[in-house]
Amino acid sequence: MKEWTSFNQQLELLKKRGLIIDDEQKALGYLKTIGYYRLSGYLYSFRQVDVQNPNRKLDGFIEGSYFEDIKNLYMFDKKLRQMALDALERIEVALRVNISYALGRYSPTSYVDKQYFDEKFKHGSWLKRHQDAIDNEERKQNTFVNHHVRHYDALPIWVACETWDFGTMSTLFKGMKDSDKDKIAKIYHLQSGSHLQSHLHAFNFIRNVSAHHSRLWNRAIVFKASLKGLSDKEWQDLSVKKVFVYFCLMKRMLDVICPNSKWSERFLALLDEFPQVANNAVYLEQMGVTVNPNSWQLWQGK
User: Fold this and answer.
1) Cα separations in angstroms, 245 against 91, 253, 271, 292
2) What is the reported pTM?
3) What is the rounded distance in angstroms from the CA atom of residue 193 to the CA atom of residue 75?
4) Do the strands 53-61 and 47-50 form a parallel or antiparallel pair, or are they unpaired?
5) Strand partners for 104
6) Is there a contact between 87 and 250 (Cβ–Cβ < 8 Å)?
7) What is the DSSP string of 13-66?
8) What is the pLDDT along the chain (302 residues), one digit of tens a residue?
9) What's the CA gap between 10 and 87, in Å, rounded?
10) 189 closest CA partner among 243, 234, 229
């Protein structure tokens, strides 16, 4: 177990390891409000690499590493997470409508009947997760769930979907029949429902990272989306292991959902805020920006 250290000791440790701190009082303020451990995820990129084992980082910092650069990287990442949550909220709400509209045509309570889903779908497990969300809403006072429970026999899917989080929604989409998924995928100009399914899986991972205030900018994306059928040559130059490609996929969907949104302009402006670090310890390519979005049609206009 590591020993407890005071904020002043933490500051001295950073200085001892070679981090340049121009304003110690300001740096202490960040240690007190953000915490050494949370900042360590951003400090990591500035640490020296072990020449004998390139996969290992040393405790010492690369020459020319400044605390101000770490703070700026942290602030950039915070804004990046906010951009992700903004886009994913819009996508989540739109997909709820798409799913409830498609399944509602079979029956207002189609979501409780496994005949409307793929035979491999673990419908019972999903239904329990859904019921837990319903029960949680019922425990609250004066909610839309209470209203429907009092006045109707059951919740129609277009009401029930309002209790779903992104994971519950994307899991249900995965369990839908291919024909229904394909119809929804066409709304977003994708070849098949399986492609949209892979996007939603990755989006859910990014949403969870962002909602829990974890580091996002250079996070390895463990659930990789399919880019099959996307025609722009730029897609071929992007890595599905890096986060930037998923902001590009969000942009595609937002062009359908809210074509007049200024989200893309705000995102491009945020990329310009990425810290310009003299010692090149961090750079935009590490988050997967290997194409110039300003010359890509996807990011221009609609």
Assistant:
1) 16, 13, 14, 12
2) 0.93
3) 36
4) antiparallel
5) none
6) yes
7) HHHHTT-B-S-HHHHHHHHHHT-HHHHHHHHGGGEEEETTEEEEEEEEEPTT-B
8) 788 999 999 999 999 999 999 999 999 999 999 999 999 999 999 999 999 998 899 999 999 999 999 999 999 999 999 999 999 999 999 999 999 999 999 999 999 999 999 999 999 999 999 988 888 776 566 576 666 666 566 789 999 998 899 999 999 999 999 999 999 999 999 999 999 999 999 999 999 999 999 999 999 999 999 999 998 999 999 999 999 999 999 999 999 999 999 999 999 999 999 999 999 999 999 999 999 999 999 998 65
9) 37
10) 229
Which residues are within 8 A (CB) of 119 and not within 5 positions of it... i.e. 6 or more apart? none
Structure tokens at 193: 């429902």
Measured in degrees and rounded to the nearest 5, phi and psi for residue 301 equal 65, -135
55/80 Cα distance (integer angstroms): 26
Helix axes of 263-271 and 244-257: crossing angle, nearest 10 degrees: 160
Query: Which segments of 152-191 does DSSP mark as H helices, in order?
Result: 157-160, 166-175, 178-187
Residue ranges per domain, the chain?
A: 7-65, 72-299
